[in-house]
## 1
Amino acid sequence: MTRIVSFALAAVLGLSLASCGSEDKESAGAPASTPSPTAVPSSTSGVPVTRTEVELTKALLELADLPSGFSEDKEDSADGTKPFSSPSDRCKTLVKYLNATKAPGSKASAARTFTGGQEGPYIDYVLDSMGTADEVGDLRESYAKAVGNCSKVSLKTKGAGNTSMKVEEITAPAYGTKPFAFRLTGTSGSKRGLEYTAAVTGVGDVMISVSILAGQGTELEPATETAVVKVRHTLQIS
C-alpha cells in the first residue's frame, strides 16, 4: 500500500475492516518502552532543518522494536478514494486531514504499519519533517482545533456502506512536545464499535503520528513513548 502519511487514516482502516470479524486473533501487545538515550543537541525551532525520506525511515520503529506477535504490513492499498465526509462546515478541515495522503506543509515523510493478528491491533507510525519546530507546533494546533470543532464524521467502506464515527479528544500520552490525541468510534452503521485512536506530538522539526486501530485501549501510550525515543536517538534531537 502507499504509506500512510500523518493524517491519512483510510489505509489503516482499509487494512483491517475486512478482517475485523475473523475468529483467528493472534495475541500481540504494544511495543515495550525503550531506554532513554543520552541527550544530544536539539534542533533550533526557528532554523529550518532539511531531512530526507531515507533519514526519516531510519528513525521509524522496526519489527525488532516491537514485541512478538506483530508483523509488518507492506501492501499498497491506496486507491485515491476519500472515505471520510461530513455535511457540516465545522468538520471541513478535519475531513480534509483524514482524507489527505500527506501532512500539510510536510517536507519529507516516512511511514510503517504493523499488524498484531487478523483482528488487530493495527499500529501505524508516521514521521513528517516540517522544517522547524514552530511548523510542527502550528500544525498540531490546527489539528487540535479541527478535532475540537467536529463531533462526528461519516466513514464510507467499500462493500459495507457508511458508518457514523464519533470524534473526541482524549488524554494524550505525555511524550514529545505538546502531544495531542483523539479517538474515532463507530456509533452506527456497518462498522459500529470500530475504534481508532491517534496521537500526534513533536520532536524538534519532526511530527510523530501514532495510530491504533482495533486495539485494547492500552497500546497508544507505550507505542508513542517508543516512537519518540527512537526519533530522538536516531536523529539526535534532545
Note: The two ends are 33 Å apart (CA to CA).
## 2
Amino acid sequence: MKREKPADAFQSVYFITDWWDGPKSGFADFNGTVHCFERVFDKVNDDWSDLYLLRPVSTEEYSLQIESYKLFLDWINDKSSTRPHPSSDKDNKRYHEVEQLLAEFEHQFYIEKYIGEFISISNNDKEYGNKINDFNYKVQWNRE
C-alpha cells in the first residue's frame, strides 16, 4: 500500500491497536508504505523499550484491521450501551470473524527494527486530551 512520502520527518500513524505508557502496536507509514509496528519489551530493564519491530502489511490485512478498529470504536462511542468489550461479546459475531482472519497474519516476520518517536496532536484544540481518540499521532523512525 504505497502512500505519498511526507514532507517532514514525521510520518502518519493510522491507528494504535495497543497502548501501555505509549503506543505498543499499530499501523503507521514507514518509507511511504503502511507497516505494522510492535514495541519491543526490554527484559533487562523489565520495561517497554523505544524500539519497534516493523513489517509491511497487505491491503487485505489493513482492511480487516480497520474493520476491527471500527467495531471497537463503535463500542467505545456507544455511551448508553451495557455490552461487554467486543472480544468478550459472544453476540458480536463479525468482530470474532475479523479477529480470526487477522490471526492468520500474526506469524509474519518483522523485517526492520527502529526507534519510534511518537508525537501527539490534539484533535479538539485542547492542550491535553483525556483519551487516546482525542489525538492524531505522528512518528519518526530512527535507526537503532
Note: The chain has two helices and six strands.
